[in-house]
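Practice set, problem 2.
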Amino acid sequence: DFMQASWDVEEIQAKGIQHLASFVKDKNAFPCLLKCTEVITRAMKTHTDSLELQVEGCTLLLEILTQALEQGVLMALDEGVASCLLHTVRKHCENEEFLSSLCTLLMMVSASEVAAENLRKVGIIPDLLSILRHFLRNDKICFSCCAVLWSLAVSENNGDQAVLASAVPVTCAVLQKHLQNGAVAESACSALWALALQGCVTDSDCEPTAALLLDALRMNPERAVLVRNGCLALASLVRLSETAALAILLDSKGSGIELIKDEYHLHFDEPGVAGALCLLMNEMVQYDEVLLDMRSQKMEKLLSEIKLQFPFS
């Protein structure tokens, strides 16, 4: 009430946020703090020029969201809150340290389907792409932004085809830059999967994107989630174009089929990985030329192994 009575007084908003922050460690205060998110974002939007207030507000929201996720509570922030966050992103788009925290906040918010939809509605995708282009070397920002892109692109009622298509080269640039960083590569592979699933990858981009995904699998073979999502992304590319299937067969760095076999044997007890590999192979055998090559490389043997390992799946 104290904050709502004086929106225009920066000092009151700052003191209010600081006082609310003092309750973060009190588990009994959590239900009340959950109701304060709109007040905090309103204060941030009203005083966008104050970087200190932005930082404190963002930090407090991160604390609240972290507790919410730990307790299994998804915060479906409304369109007004999404708009506030976008406003803050645009106002401080050059401040790398603050953006790093803010993008983490956006990633946590987008875990809710409703919140992700609201972020998409207010038009945050071009801003995310701009941030990625400017801070391509920052692994924390890249990880968060790719995770947000995945949440926004995976929505079935997505109408931003042209905007999403512009995300493909940027996401590929992130993956290329951070191939050896497992967490970022995993996040980028997930985003590419969602983008390919939406049909946003052009025919001419299918081959280089497939080659890049194979590189990610080679560089991070131990990460089951990356392998699964990388294979799902490849399956979506193969569905879009035969050139992607041929790129897997004829990759200059070694046979993609052998790589698939190696990945399965490394994760033979992971049903998610096996399912993704089967989906990829199912897409590849739709092309006669590819089918012949897969037969010559004895893929039946691998399929039989998978069938024995997961007889009821």
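Problem 2, part (b): a different protein.
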Amino acid sequence: VSTGNGCGHTLLAPHSGTLSSKNYPGTYPNHTMCRWQLQAPPGTSLLLAFGDVDLEPSEHCAHSSLLLSDPQAGTAYGPYCRNSVPSAPLLVTNSSSVTVLFNSTSHRSGRGLLLSYATSQHPEGQSKHSLPLAVRFSVYCPAGCKDIHGDIWGNPSQGYRDTSVLCKAAVHAGVIADELGGQVTLSREKGITLYESAFANGLHSKRWVSRGCTPRPAVGPVSCRLPSPACDDALEVAAFNASSWWHEVDVLGQVRAWVAERAALGTAGHSWAAEPSAEAAWLELDLGTRRNVTGIITKGSSEQHDYYVMSYRVSSSRDGKNWKPYRGSANQEDKVFEGNADSHGEVSNAFIPPIVARYVR
């Protein structure tokens, strides 16, 4: 739970989370306050990782401060600011409940704060979003990494440049869900010099080309490869169905039907499109038998018309009669997937956990 007018990006999940001050990594505002109440499951304790604590210095951190308190043990950590920083990047508590309090008065500088937490069920610690030189290693990524500051490079199938924001790359690749976090294993490889940009799971990576200039020339271009989610490649669709489809009439009076069968990715020419007056359009895929569906890729139709779907929900069924909405890892409300921003690019979204169904709508 978070309260106050100084709260920035915050995602607090049962086993991990990320929190930041308002405007981070820009200068935090004057005269604000935020209180985060972190609660771990019974029988576990909290581990807090200080990603960044940059509050304007003052005596005893009186002007701006970060204070952590452990009500169960009656202990406190801090106050912290720029001239009084945490002694270690990882704080291991003996409590399942910690209150994080951020205060600011008048100041001129400071990025604010970025913290993440996990529970003692993950003793290997959390990622601070940087890569050591190990060939293969594993980190625990806290929930909420998707919207922290930083760029990623690469295509999910190719790997990632070694300066990537690690956990954002894992969300982009569909290895973990941003709303829950999770364990990520990586391996360092060399020889990949071209990365095509891609839009996946709400994150747009950047295109990057190696030009033979690296910090470690003896090693050569280095990338980090994330394990791919379990996937049997593209599924065969036995039949398509839709709520409606558009019968386009051109200037010569000829009719062209944008029928459901044209929804298959890679179909030449025009795609499927619902009747323009339809308010609740849906497209249905019959996979022929129950299959394990790990994600979906969408693309618009650029032939003559700049058509694409900006967002959508997903439902699934095992019998074609009883439908179950997809609610993602947090399982709280129907998940709205971010779709396309143009009619040309492909957008990937992973299902974490996967869907087991014959019909997907």
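Answer key, part (b): The first strand starts at residue 2 and ends at 4. Helices lie at 166-173.
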